[in-house]
Design goal:
Elements lengths: L15 E2 L2 E2 L5 H17 L3 H15 L5 E3 L1 H7 L3 E6 L10 H13 L4 E6 L3 H13 L2 E7 H6 L1 H9 L3 E5 L6 H13 L5 E3 L10 H24 L5 E5 L4 H7 L9 E9 L10 H4 L1 E5 L2 E5 L24 H8 L3 E7 H15 L5 H15 L6 E6 L7 H8 L7
Parallel strand pairs: 4-14, 5-6, 5-8, 6-7, 9-10, 9-14, 10-13
Antiparallel strand pairs: 1-2, 3-4, 11-12
């Protein structure tokens, strides 16, 4: 197998991936973030923390998640072979539980009483509510009113788990506004609360910390695909909003020159409409929510409104490590529209019996595009980051007539 030039371990001591990342926050919050960084660096390598997290991954989450060969779908497409890393089979239904457990364990060891966070599609909210219940911590989740309506099943799950779901009615009432509101709530009591950011975004140490907890996805996948096929995949594909599921998969393959990687963003209703969230495709470097990354922004540097059919992808920023990987051309970033994602949602459901999250359907759609123009010995490994239970009511009500279910 081919090895690329080994990348420098990142972030650096100041939390930067190249020019991206850092801490663009008021001094009082910087002191608290430094406390979290110190605690994380202390506990992440401690035997007790590692064993507790490992045991929970195995006996609670159900890791390792399997890799599945989509033989029927691949045969129908007539080209490359598509494999899925089945993060949708984790407890709570997505990859989010991987970092939520780590953050909850860290918060408890730091003596925090409450975990606070935002959520878009609700998968981070459900996972954090689950981890909070397990750890005996209070939990507040901020969620935009639009997303609460779209992802109602996840709202109910969070409430059943004992979490306080706080509606956010300002602005577009989606993920960006939920992040704004959660930060405001956190700043009211940063001593007793722990902000458990839901992706590889935010000020240092969160992009590093969430990536490290998600790295288990790539480490498992690398070993599993070698066992299944005898070689590494030719391509990796994962959806990118903030980018946690993608960086989790990509991280174990970054030094393998022969493995090409694609992050898939939402082009929504089309670039010309402005209804998209293609941050890495159309954005430029800027600062949002305390860190530097690619941002969809206007001429004055203010974040633009964003949109995606997938609530977990409609964020105007992106993880700083993804911004860096784009600049050095290690990962290529592409887009998929709402209609393409919907087609893939139903195709995977009806050909393989797997209902993916709308977020994951963007990655599946791009893999299907690739497979059609490939030889049948080439392989594509897709991170199926979540299951579609949360989306079925919304999809059926709004698009069911197009696909024969109304």
């Amino acid at each position: 197998m081919h090895r690329a030039r080994k990348l420098e371990p990142l972030p650096d001591n100041n939390g930067y991936f190249g020019q991206y990342g850092g801490q663009f926050v008021p001094e009082p919050l910087q002191n608290i973030l430094d406390e979290i960084t110190t605690a994380y660096n202390h506990f992440k390598d401690s035997p007790g923390f590692k064993k507790e997290l490992s045991d929970l991954r195995k006996h609670y989450v159900g890791r390792p998640s399997p890799i599945y060969h989509c033989r029927s779908l691949s045969s129908k497409l007539g080209g490359g072979q598509i494999y899925l890393k089945r993060e949708d089979l984790n407890h709570t239904g997505a990859h989010k539980i991987n970092h939520c457990l780590g953050e909850a364990l860290l918060a408890k060891r730091m003596g925090k009483k409450k975990i606070i966070a935002e959520t878009g599609a609700g998968q981070h909210g459900v996972a954090l509510a689950t981890a909070a219940a397990l750890a005996g911590l209070e939990c507040d989740i901020y969620m935009g009113e639009v997303d609460m309506e779209k992802e109602h099943p996840n709202v109910v799950r969070m409430k059943i788990l004992g979490t306080n779901v706080i509606p956010v009615g300002m602005g577009l009432r989606t993920l960006k506004e939920a992040v704004d509101a959660a930060f405001e709530g956190y700043m009211k009591d940063p001593i007793n609360q722990f902000y458990a950011i839901g992706s590889v975004v935010g000020p240092h140490p969160f992009p590093m910390m969430v990536r490290d907890f998600q790295r288990v996805v790539g480490e498992e996948a690398r070993e599993q695909i070698l066992e299944l096929t005898g070689r590494l995949p030719d391509y990796l594909v994962a959806c990118v909003g903030g980018g946690s599921n993608a960086i989790g998969l990509f991280s174990a393959f970054l030094d393998d020159a022969a493995v090409r990687m694609y992050g898939v963003e939402p082009s929504g209703k089309g670039f010309k409409t402005g209804n998209h969230a293609a941050t890495l495709t159309l954005g430029k470097p800027g600062v949002i929510h305390g860190f530097k990354c690619y941002v969809l922004q206007d001429a004055e540097g203010r974040p633009l409104p964003v949109y995606s059919i997938a609530s977990g992808l409609d964020y105007p920023g992106v993880g700083p490590e993804h911004s860096y990987l784009k600049d050095i051309k290690r990962v290529e970033y592409r887009t998929i529209s709402d209609s393409e994602a919907l087609d893939a949602f139903f195709e995977l459901s009806r050909v393989e019996g797997i209902i993916p999250a709308l977020e994951s359907a963007h990655a599946v759609a791009y893999a299907m595009k690739m497979a059609r123009r490939m030889d049948n010995h080439e392989t594509i490994l897709v991170n199926c980051s979540g299951r579609g239970d949360k989306d079925i009511d919304y999809v059926a009500a709004k698009y069911g007539h197009q696909y024969g279910i109304n």
